[in-house]
Amino acid sequence: MMRALILAAGEGSRLRPLTKDKPKALVELCDKTLLERQVSILQKAGITDIAIATGYKGEQIQELGFNCYHNPDYATSNMVYSLFNALPFLEREGDLIISYGDIVYELDNLKKIITSDAAVNVMVDKEWFKYWKMRFVDPLTDAESLILNDDGTIKELGLKTESYNDIQGQYIGLIKVRRDKLKALISFYHNLKIKKSSNIKDLNNMFLTDFIQLLINADWDIRAILISGGWLEVDSLKDLNLYEGLAKSKELDSYCRLDK
Fold first, then answer.
1. d(Cα 98, Cα 5) in Å, to the nearest integer?
2. pLDDT over 90, % of the chain
3. What percentage of the chain's residues is helix, strand, coil (to nearest 5)?
4. pLDDT tens-digit readout, 192-203
């Protein structure tokens, strides 16, 4: 049985004032909340066992009837902490989809990662440049490294870079872990010993890309599931206004077909 955990604990400070009185996942994109859009796509794919890792104003998501795992330390921690704070959900039976709470994606893309039989899968947009160029004057100010091995596994991701040669795609914030690998994933997290020489400050503030890179460094095969667009990240008020404008001019579909 496939399950999904949506990471929605962050404060969404770049979406203020919209997030002054609600969590980022309840911000609306074209008249539907980000959470509503993502849950709808998951359900269309047959995934009904959905949990939310909450934090900032998490009671508003709880009140909607979702199965929630609240991170009370959301203000001083990051995604990896919120992920493993939902340990009871991780330990249950079934493959697991892990998704950022501020993204939306097309059903076809979700199906690609669902049908992969690799142990750990990370969705990567190989046509990332068009999307980043639409959002940023200089894509390198935001884009991060992502280098693939010849066999389609990921060699490196999540680092700042000044060279497009280090960017073969962009990680979109969607992962699938096969059921037989979840126990090992949990053990890996609990056994992590961060070296002082690492650029990772501590476990509490680790980004998910940092965690994936540590798995890679420990010889885990992390499969890149390649897509060509068909998703959006709502990271800032600028993003949201841009997408709303593109939707009105009927141009948003060239980046992501909402509700498809």
1. 5
2. 90
3. 40, 25, 40
4. 855 544 545 577
Structural domain boundaries of the chain?
A: 3-254
Q: How far is CA 165 from CA 54, 157, 162, 239, in A?
A: 37, 13, 9, 26
Task: Give the CATH class of 3-254.
Answer: alpha beta
% residues pLDDT > 70 (the chain): 97
Helix (H, G, I), strand (E, B) or coil at 26: helix
Rounded-to-integer distance, Cα 170 and Cα 63, Å: 34
What's the residue count for the chain?
260
Average pLDDT, the chain: 94
> 């200089």: which residue's tokens?
138
The one-letter amino acid at 162: E
Which sign, positive or negative, has the C-alpha torsion 188, 194, 198, 204? positive
CB 131 within 8 A of CB 120: no
